[in-house]
Every structure is written in C-alpha cells, then in structure tokens.
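R.M. (postdoc): so does anyone remember the format we settled on? I'll just put the structure tokens first.
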C-alpha cells in the first residue's frame, strides 16, 4: 500500500508534467514551507503559486523520478528535470533530491537538495 506522502509526491509530479498549476498547488498545504538547501525559499500556497506561475506560463518543462523512498510521513525523490524557455529556446536541466513531509494529508514541507 502506498503511503499518503508518496501518492502526493506522485500527484504533484503528474500535475507538474501536465503544466496544470492549480492541480500542482492543490497537493500542498496552505502553510507549506519550501526550502532550497538550508534556506527558506517561500511559505504558503499563494507564494508557491506565484513562484511557479512564470514557469508554467512561459516554459516547456518536465521531470522524471526514477527513485522514490518513503517512510511514514517522509518521502525523498531523485528527480531529473528539464526546462525550455519558449521565448529564447534556451534549455536547462539537472538532477535534484527533493524531500517532502506530509502535513494534514497534504505536502507541508519541501526541501530541494542539490
């Protein structure tokens, strides 16, 4: 049986890959905390939506998760991502570890580690 956090991680990735900003944001707790390394990047669903809106509106992008580990309310994804700016054609790509923690049956904490 899949844990809730693993299912949430799967759902948010599917919404991300479908360029569906609202379905993506709906996977997150209203008070989500997002970290880039050890620094807080943003707090709250509204801030998450505004952070991701330019990418969802101006880029082609996607991600793949070949490895996902989960225990209790914790999940860690190895994610390979890519983005193409529609105006310049510039492509960027990379690999990142993404750590999620569940809060009230939603993603309440995210940490990007690279």
């Amino acid at each position: 049986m899949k844990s809730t956090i693993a299912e949430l991680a799967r759902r948010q990735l599917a919404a991300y890959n479908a360029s569906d900003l609202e379905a993506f944001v709906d996977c997150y707790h209203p008070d989500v905390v997002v970290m880039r390394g050890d620094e807080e990047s943003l707090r709250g669903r509204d801030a998450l939506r505004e952070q991701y809106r330019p990418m969802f509106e101006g880029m082609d992008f996607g991600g793949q998760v070949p490895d996902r580990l989960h225990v209790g309310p914790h999940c860690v994804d190895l994610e390979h991502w890519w983005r193409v700016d529609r105006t310049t054609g510039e492509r960027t790509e990379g690999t990142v570890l993404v750590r999620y923690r569940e809060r009230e049956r939603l993603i309440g904490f995210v940490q990007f580690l690279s």
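R.M.: ...and that's the designed sequence above, right after the tokens. Also worth knowing: Residues 4-17 form the longest helix (14 residues). The chain has one domain: 4-113.
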